[in-house]
Amino acid sequence: MTDFVSPKDLANAIGASESSLKRWVDGGLLGVHRTAGGHRRIPVTEAVHFIRTRKLKVVRPDLLGLSPALELDAEMSADQEHGDRLLSHLTEGKLVQARGLITTLFLQGTPIAQIADGPILHALEEIGKIWRHDREGILIEHRALEACISAVNVLLPLLAPNISEKPMCAIGSSLPNDPYILPNILVTAVLTECGFNPTNLGANLPISLLCSEARRLRPSLVWVSASVVDDSKSSSSELDELAREVLAWNGTLAIGGREAHRLQLSDSDAISLCSNMEELAALAQRIQAATAAESSAS
After folding, report:
1. Residues with pLDDT less than 70, the chain
2. What is the pLDDT of residue 75?
3. Average pLDDT, the chain
């Protein structure tokens, strides 16, 4: 993926005239860099933010280094119908189309949290049922997960925090013996879109190591993904200890995942249970608002 795009290429990407692009740049609507020769270049992150906030149609996403866009019915919702279409692409092995659907929803301005809770969740839940009666479902599931991971990883660099100054720190991982990679990647994307600077410590990490890293960095938000809970009693005890550490600097410990209900956690002001990515996004926004209010008051 390229870091910069010329006004001409951005104009062609959205089907606008180059003179319109230059007018937007001159009006301060688009930030630009100047090459040594004085030519204007627009950061792709800036271009994508401009496209998403103004809900512009992208006709040539390849000029932005993105997957081919798909024509989507304007009357379709971003949940069930798009989920069914994504499910069809993934089960049929049409991975370019699957990535293109995720890219298109993103470019249309759909928040990452909504894409995760809607189309991606729906498609993967349905695919997860296939292997129960068809061994080939294991292959389909692995292929689908890699396609979704690939799509989100391409979008992640385009979600640069849109806040000034230093973005808030967040770190997180999955529980020990939890091998799932996608949840942490989605959390990273959601938090980045919310203006955080998240560090994904990956799957299958001992809670003690997450705790020591949290103690070192003192992040505003620590997350734990619990798609698999191997030892509920031990994990719950260690998470309670992590919550006590996080509370010491008024941080928040967000816990979610399909098996999070198996954890037996103590009542702590530091712990927030998030049943989906949109709840996580709302939590992140509340943390930012509270921090901003404290800064204004001081």
Report:
1. 1-2, 69-80, 160-165, 298
2. 46
3. 89
Do the Cβ atoms of 34 and 7 come closer than 8 Å?
Answer: no
Q: What's the one-letter identity of residue 252?
A: T
Close Cβ partners of 164 (under 8 Å, ≥ 6 residues apart): none
pLDDT at residue number 298: 63
pLDDT at site 245: 96
Q: pTM (2 decimals)? A: 0.90
**What local confidence, expressed as pLDDT, does residue 1 receive?**
56
Residue 207: both structure tokens together: 């809670």
Q: Can you give the pLDDT at residue 181? A: 96
Cα 110 to Cα 6, 9, 151, 210, 290: the distances in Å are 25, 23, 15, 31, 25
Q: Would you state the pLDDT for residue 77?
A: 54
Q: Residue written as tokens 């003179």?
A: 19
Within 10 Å of residue 177's Cβ, how many Cβ atoms?
13
Alpha carbon distance 19, 298 (integer Å):
46
Distances, alpha carbon 66 to alpha carbons 58, 102, 104, 182, in Å: 10, 11, 10, 20
